[in-house]
Amino acid sequence: MSDQNYSFFGAVEESFDKAAKHTKWDEGILNQIKACNAVYRMRFPVKRDNGSIEVIEAYRVQHSHHKTPCKGGIRFSEAVNQDEVMALAALMTYKCAIVNVPFGGGKGGIKINPKAYSAYELEKITRRYTAELIKKDFIGPGTDVPAPDYGTGEREMAWIIDTYSAMHPGEIDAAGCVTGKPVSQGGVRGRREATGLGVFFGLREVCNTPDVMEKLGLTPGVKDKRVVVQGLGNVGYHSAKFFQDAGAKIVGLAEYEGAIWSDDGLDVDAVFQHRKNTGSILNFPGSQNFAKNTDALEMDCDILIPAALENVINGENAPRVKAKIIGEAANGPLTPEADDVFVKKGVLVVPDMYLNAGGVTVSYFEWLKNLSHVRYGRLEKRFTENMNAHILSQIEELSGKQVKDNEREFIMHGPDEVDLVYSGLEETMITATKEIMTKWQEDPNIPDMRTAAYVVAINKVGTSYAELGIFP
What's the CA gap between 245 and 213, in Å, rounded? Predict the structure, then answer.
């Protein structure tokens, strides 16, 4: 498949077919799991600030209804097309299945460059898009729950919930119609950094698996690993930051305007600030510039994290990639040809469909919060602190020794919302990693971790369909 006729959905189907051979399901069930159930393609007019009318192209795809609601982000990008949205919706189905989040996969996209529109124009586009989704029942806490994606954030989600609530007066669970909202609008603390933190938890668990690391010729653990991150958006920045905080060395960073490297390591926050001040990560003090931004992908390192857009590593440049582990923080950054190259080279690819599931996992927590109408930790925080204080005082009394102040604070601390969100995400990513690794080790015919992840997902979705009695 050359880059010109590359189909992202085709690549997802190719990976699916590769994995389907290692499952017990018959062809009919596999075809149903693979198919996109509903594709909604719309056009609507928007009046620009200069008075001109522009027709906007937009999509919402519901890939699977084996569980409801459907779940998936909305991206604003000029590259949006039906093939891409279908592929991303399919990945959401498999992603949710792997991390045991009870949603079907969905995805949305509006074909615009958000930088070319004023805030007022973006608000009009977002609200009109929401109204179009409402008309066809493609949004709602029990049917389809969007979230932020490339080019969107909390602001757009706030516009969506406001439009939905206005058109559904009195619906008590209206806040659950969308996730990734500002905390003041029913969002959950920890959602912003969730995808990057999930990437960190997933890769850390892989790095803590001794036999896998031995095969790669690396020592277990994250400390002192040399990491290159491509993309300094929300996901890339937080992935790099959590690795840095855990003692890894960020040796290379790439953005669309260029890429930089330093063997001594780059301070992620300082680079971020430098970019804010100068408009570019290039010429960061103490670093060297790469000739072109894609050179960062080929830098000698232990872990490479592509966290930008799809299809950046393909059959052409994969042979030159020197990383031992590739953590797919973006959706679909590797083509199937690249996968084949890495299997032959013995490079471990940790696949996107579960590695970047931190966002949907924490979105699930946010949705549950909206349906339960109570903040996490509100009921138990003080009780836990009082109980811990009592236990501590009893131990001190019995032992005749005093605990240090900083330790006392740590032991007594009752969980805040963000503590519980982080903890739930960590549990989710560790469990999913172990499940995929176990499946991979059980079947010597499974060539790579991506295929193992697809097998796990297909089995879970297939079981759901079978249990629903859709396929007697």
Answer: 21
- The answer on 78 and 148 residing in a single domain is yes
Whether residue 344 is found in the same domain as residue 199 = yes
Provide the whole-model pTM: 0.90
Tell me the CATH number at 52. Answer: 3.40.50.10860
**Does the residue 86 lie in any domain?**
yes
The model's pLDDT over 175-231, given as tens digits with 9 standing for 90+, comes to 999 999 999 999 999 988 999 999 999 999 999 999 889 998 889 999 999 999 998
Burial class (CB in 10 A: 0-12, 13-18, 19+), 104: buried
Q: What is the pLDDT of residues 18-71, one digit of tens each?
A: 999 999 998 989 999 999 999 999 999 999 999 999 999 999 999 999 999 999
Residues tagged active-site:
107
Are 247 and 325 found together in one domain? yes
Q: What angle in degrees, to the nearest 10, is found between the helix axes of 417-442 and 449-468?
A: 100
Q: Can you give the residue range of the structural domain that contains 162?
A: 38-185
Please list the residues that pair with 287 across neighbouring strands.
Answer: none
Single-letter amino acid code for the residue at 405: D
Q: In angstroms, rounded to a whole number, what is the distance separating the alpha carbons of residues 37 and 62?
A: 6
One domain, residues 28 and 80: no
Say yes or no to pLDDT of 468 above 80.
no
The reply to whether 104 and 121 lie within a common domain is yes
Looking at the structure, tell me whether residues 162 and 248 fall in a common domain.
Answer: no
CA 202 from centroid of its chain's CA atoms: 11
Quote the number of domains for the chain. 3
Contacts 24+ apart (CB under 8 A), 420-423: 420/376, 420/377, 421/188, 421/189, 421/190, 421/191, 421/194, 421/362, 421/365, 421/376, 422/190, 422/197
Dihedrals phi, psi of 176, to nearest 5 degrees: -80, 5
Same domain, 270 and 318: yes
CB 415 within 8 A of CB 423: yes
Give pLDDT tens digits for 282-339.
Answer: 888 888 888 888 888 888 899 999 998 777 888 888 888 889 999 999 988 988 888 8
The answer to whether residues 140 and 174 belong to one domain is: yes
Question: Would residue 70 count as lying in a domain?
Answer: yes
